Amino acid sequence: MEITPAHYALLSAALFIIGVVGVLVRRNIIIIFMSIELILNAVNINLVANARHLENLVGQVFVVFVIAVAAAEAAVGLGILLAFFRNKETVNIDEMNVMRW
Predict the structure, then answer these.
(1) What are the structural domains of the chain?
(2) Torsion angles phi and psi, residue 26, rounded to 5
(3) N or C: which end of the chain has fewer CB within 10 A?
């Protein structure tokens, strides 16, 4: 049995749905960051599978940019999270009202 682009699309859709559910349901900011990374990885799988199917490297170039954006997001997000944890001693999203006036 050969693995087709449809198999990759189903895997990508499953990972994307798990990531969206994780963002919407969970209250821990670390779990939310992990869910966002899962969403970005689902997009990467889809881009690489379609680039391979079309025999074009454009999708793989986009994957490199998505990975760079994900790394920057993780670095900035974890920096903000660390500063918040030092002030409030929690990572619960319900406690994050520091930005309100």
Answers:
(1) 5-92 (1.10.287.3510)
(2) -80, 155
(3) C
